[in-house]
Amino acid sequence: MPEQSGFVVGELDAVVRMLADGATGLNGQAGNAPQVPDAGESSADIAGTLSAIYASASTIVRSIAAAGDRVVASAASYHNNDLNNADLLGGMSR
After folding, report:
1. Nearest partner of 71 among 27, 25, 11, judged by Cα
2. When you count CB atoms within 10 A of the terminal residue's CB, does the N or C end of the chain come out lower?
3. Radius of gyration of the chain (CA)
């Protein structure tokens, strides 16, 4: 019998956990943002740079959370399709 490779749908849970933990950890850093330093005439430039960094970090957190949601939805869809196909073929019971 040929060896099968691939994954089990349940393995996606680990991916979701890693994404959720990463998003939570990164989002937790938001409260630790440093104050804008007094850099004289450069203060506005530094504030703008920090603002851009914070906006990027926010986008990363939202993207990670969205990726986790998509993995969960895909796993559920795969599982449901698998069960429906098994039913059509007279296979596994639910």
Report:
1. 11
2. N
3. 22
- The H helix count followed by the E strand count for the chain is 2, 0
CA distance 31 to 36: 14
The share of the chain scoring above pLDDT 70, in percent, equals 83
pLDDT 10s digits, 6-53: 667 677 788 888 888 888 887 777 777 667 677 888 888 888 888 898
**By the 8 A CB rule, do 47 and 36 touch?**
yes
Cβ 20 vs Cβ 68: under 8 Å: yes
Tokens 């099968």 correspond to 4
Q: What is the pLDDT of residue 1?
A: 44
